[in-house]
Specification:
23 strands, Lyase, Ornithine Decarboxylase, Chain A, domain 1, nine-stranded mixed β-sheet, eight-stranded parallel β-barrel, 2 domains, TIM Barrel, 12 helices, globular, alpha/beta, about 450 residues
């Protein structure tokens, strides 16, 4: 099995990806994912299609686990990054737990073979139904994000005759530099977490609640964090809170949850080095005597995935060259929503380059993957791969313009499996009614 490697495009972008080029017959380079040629795979499964490398996911998980070996720790995969059942099952086999943010993700985790003790339940707006389901499943921890949620959880747990294990998600109020404001969660005034200056008072209330057991503290500072100082600062603030809690007599504290946010490569940015990350957090975790919880998502799957898409048409308009593909913003929303960069290359590069706007078929001006991008020169019918699409790709896909969502494919060495089938037109209307069945309340 071939691991992920750096592929350097025609204009010099360094991109870590699950795909790589090898010399094919006649000397023409052909892109592969592990041992499977992507042109052949596209012919078998159609386009657009998401393709994931199992080897890359395994390598990322094992490297992080090895880096954290100096502390008692648990790795809980952040399901929102990629919630495919097969991906969840692969990570479970490696020893991962999960971090969930909804009742649907809980159901997915249980379907993939996880038990309640593998689950940390985060999220700022848990419903009563979701809290009941998580209590019934005996989840390891509720990462509680407000005093109101704490009161609700106490009431429900007490009524169910259960004790809810709780970690307080604290907003450490540290400055974090991420590529987009939407991916910052640990700064003052964010909707996430309990304000730091209120956390101790909330903890005092928690220890008096009959349905709650205060088991830890938690933070999540953001996503695609490329520097480590905010982790060190944030953990320091959490440990100040731990000391105050222990002074109050909280003897059941067990977990120090530092969240996720480890960065991967999309363009030329440096990914988070797991060993450097561990060197920042492990000593503090060991000193605390608590079990360290880390919640990586993008780090494990982001560079494991690509989106395959076929060039439908070439077009020139207003001095701009357009490449129109069969994938659109409904398939991969990140470029439109976050102005996110994704490297794009031809599966069989011609050896020359050109500058294009790469756009999809969706009826929106915001339907694009790249603007004014110098990349492999392509013609109609060429197969493209959009790199670093394993996280926040399919999970954010929609049926906008009544477009069926693409399949997901897992590659492992020289074999592949369709782990989610391509949707059909029948799937689009499966839960609809042409003739309303009227009711009155």
């Amino acid at each position: 099995m071939r691991p992920a490697v750096h592929h350097r495009g025609p204009v010099g972008e360094g991109v870590l990806t699950a795909a790589h080029h090898v010399a094919a017959g006649g000397g023409s380079p052909a892109a592969r994912c592990e041992d499977i040629e992507l042109e052949e795979l596209a012919r078998a499964v159609g386009t657009p299609a998401y393709v994931y490398s199992a080897t890359h996911i395994r390598d990322q998980y094992r490297r992080l686990a090895s880096a954290l070996a100096g502390a008692r720790h648990r790795i809980h995969y952040s399901v929102k990054a990629n919630s495919s059942l097969a991906v969840l099952s692969l990570l479970r086999e490696l020893g991962a737990g999960v971090d969930i943010v909804s009742g649907g993700e809980l159901a997915r985790a249980l379907r993939a073979g996880y038990t309640g003790s593998d689950v940390v339940f985060s999220g700022v707006g848990k419903t009563e139904e979701e809290l009941r389901a998580a209590l019934a499943a005996d989840v390891l921890l509720f990462n509680v994000e407000s005093e109101a949620e704490l009161r609700q959880l106490d009431r429900i747990a007490h009524a169910m005759g259960r004790m809810a294990p709780v970690a307080l998600r604290v907003n450490p109020e540290v400055t974090v530099d991420t590529p987009h404001p939407y991916t910052r969660t640990g700064e003052r005034g964010m909707k996430f977490g309990i304000p730091y200056d209120e956390a101790l008072d909330v903890a005092r209330r928690a220890v008096r609640m009959p349905g709650v057991s205060l088991r830890g503290v938690d933070m999540h500072i953001g996503s695609q964090v490329t520097v480590l100082d905010p982790y060190e600062e944030g953990i320091g603030r959490l440990l100040e809170l731990v000391s105050a809690l222990r002074a109050l007599g909280c003897a059941d504290l067990e977990f120090l949850d530092v969240g996720g946010g480890l960065a991967v490569t999309y363009d030329d940015e440096a990914p988070t080095n797991p060993e450097a990350f561990a060197a920042t957090i492990v000593p503090q975790a060991v000193t605390s005597g608590l079990t360290l919880i880390v919640e990586p998502g993008r780090y494990l799957v982001g560079n494991a995935g690509i989106l395959l898409t076929r060039v439908l048409y070439r077009k020139r308009s207003g001095g701009r060259e357009y490449v129109i593909t069969d994938a659109g913003m409904n398939d991969l929303l990140r470029p439109s929503h976050y102005q996110a960069y994704h490297h794009i290359s031809a599966v069989r590069p011609s050896g020359s380059s050109a500058t294009y706007d790469v756009v999809g078929p969706v009826c929106e001006s915001g339907d694009f993957f790249a603007l004014n991008r110098t990349m492999d020169a392509v013609v109609e019918g060429d197969l493209l791969m959009v790199h670093s699409a394993g996280a926040y790709g399919f999970v954010m896909a929609s049926n906008y313009n009544s477009r069926p969502r693409p399949p997901e494919v897992l590659v492992d060495g020289d074999r592949y499996a369709i782990i989610r089938e391509r949707e059909t037109f029948d799937d689009l209307v499966r839960h609809e009614r042409t003739t309303p069945q009227w009711s009155r309340v």
